[in-house]
């Protein structure tokens, strides 16, 4: 007989929050490998507008995604204040360009509200849910939807 293990609505999770413009987002902290300062990326020809290019990360080629542009927000003009969050999405490692990393948030699954129905389908693709922390609304990002190729692989 197999045992079914569930996390339950009260399961605690740690998220790392970050800013893009005036908005705050977060991802599961277990997906984040490192946070590093902005390094100019080498552009790739014919890549989507949200791809900033690639950088050398300890001998490995790391693609850099402008997360703001990918989410349909303003495209970043990176400065020394921007950061790259190196995240693991499935079997791939990707750098996400964000304005700043804010803090670590600990909450339970039942504190996350579903994305409202008034939002367009594209928003629901990227945002798994919303929650309030100290008077601010934070969107939980679905990392597995950030790269289009990963959507096809997951299907």
Brief summary:
By secondary structure, the chain is mainly beta. The protein is built from three helices and ten strands. The protein is 11% helix and 46% strand.
Describe this structure in words.
Helices cover 11% and strands 46% of the residues. With 155 residues, it is mostly beta strands. The longest helix is centred in the C-terminal third of the chain and has 7 residues, at 148-154. It contains three helices and ten strands; from the N terminus they run E-E-E-E-E-H-E-E-E-H-E-E-H. It has helices at residues 67-70, 121-126, 148-154, and strands at residues 12-20, 23-28, 32-37, 51-57, 60-66, 83-89, 92-98, 100-108, 127-133, 136-141.
Strand line-up of the largest beta sheet: 8-1-2-10-9
Number of strands: 10
Q: SSE string, helix = H, strand = E?
A: EEEEEHEEEHEEH
- Counted by DSSP, the helix tally is 3
Distance between the termini: 30 Å
**Hey, roughly how much beta strand do the residues contain?**
over 45%
State mean pLDDT (0 to 100 scale). 85
* Helix/strand/pairing category: mainly beta
Q: Largest beta sheet, briefly?
A: 5 strands, mixed
Question: Radius of gyration, rounded?
Answer: 16 Å
Q: Rough shape?
A: globular
Detail the poorly predicted runs. Answer: 1-7, 150-155
List keywords for this structure.
11% helix; disordered C terminus; globular; mainly beta; five-stranded mixed sheet
